[in-house]
Amino acid sequence: MAVRTPLQPVRQLSAEAGVPVYLKLENLQPTGAFKLRGAWTFVRRLAPAARARGIITYSSGNHGQAIAFVAQRVGIRAVVVMPETAPSKKVEGVKRWGGEVHFAGTTSEDRFAKAMEMAESEGLTPVPPYDHHDIISGQGTVGLEILEDLPDVTNVAVPVGGGGLLAGIATAISALQPDVRVTGVEPEGSAALNAALAAGKPVRLERTQSIADGLLPLSVGRVTFSHVQAVVDGVKVPDQAIADATVWLHAHAQVLSETSGAATTAALRSGVLKPNGPTVLVVSGGNVDPAAVEALAGA
Question: How far is it, in rounded angstroms, from Cα 207 to Cα 222?
Fold first, then answer.
């Protein structure tokens, strides 16, 4: 269902960092983002009766597209509750794979409430976007592939929203190569992981704001945080660095990345991520209109 994605060496980033740098291109998944890994793992492990009733999720876009894609492949109903501000490309992506789209507010809490209401009234099985062991297990295959393809890796940087991708990667890597540093990268205006690491538990932010629309949960998940608390660190990057990195990836690495996926490149290029050896930057998704990237270049 999901594909094995390549590590792409980037000479200019390597020169800037003084160490070999590779991009883990999850934007090359069939649905354009890593979310397909967790979605397939969850649905595959679901009891047949629950699967037959259909599934529902709440998503700003990429998880919703993954759920719709998987549901279409196994022949079940999929409903996706999205924010009213969801990018049209992501809404169209859900519909392209046969998903039913409903809109609810602008926050993850708005989407969650609507999805739970519909799950109850229509007998649908909720599929969390990140805070579930099966989702985390699926995302962890990214970490396994990194270790197999680059055994001497010393640093892995991962974009963080709710923390599912970070939790999966960190769990896999800490179990097999605990000396590898795994870093979660967040926008300055949506730094829920950093807040949780400082407090020792998930913290609900009053608000989040960033151009990285996939990294805006008000809190990291409880399950995801339990996986990462002892084995990761976190860094924050400003929106301008994220915008610059998105444009740079397109122009110099021929990688079409969402702003969320470019956060790791932003961390490296802005200097907040200081690697000490072979480094992997996870590009988590590429569901973005090239015109939007061009608009960032002119901003």
Answer: 18
Measured in degrees and rounded to the nearest 5, phi and psi for residue 279 equal: -130, 140
- Confidence check: pLDDT of 190 > 90: yes
pTM reported for the whole predicted model: 0.95
DSSP character at residue 83: -
What is d(CA 192, CA 236) in angstroms, rounded to the nearest whole number? 10
Q: What is the pLDDT of residues 62-107, one digit of tens each?
A: 999 999 999 999 999 999 999 998 888 889 999 999 999 999 998 8
Q: Which domains does the chain have, with CATH numbers?
A: 7-29+132-298 (3.40.50.1100), 35-126 (3.40.50.1100)
Give the active site residues.
35, 284
What pLDDT, on a 0 to 100 scale, did the predictor assign at position 48?
94
Q: In whole angstroms, how large is the CA radius of gyration of the chain?
A: 18
Beta strands 125-126 and 279-283, pairing class: unpaired
As a residue count, the chain comes to 299
Query: Which of the four pLDDT bands, split at 50, 70 and 90, describes residue 21?
Result: very high
Q: Which residue has the tokens 């790791």?
A: 264
Q: In the beta sheet, which residues pair with residue 33?
A: 285
Residue 9 contacts by C-beta under 8 Å, 6 or more apart in sequence?
20, 21, 22
Angle at alpha carbon of residue 92, lines to 141 and 136, rounded to 5°: 20
- Encoded amino acid at 82, one letter: M
Phi, psi of 268 (to 5 degrees): -70, -50
| Position 49, amino acid | A
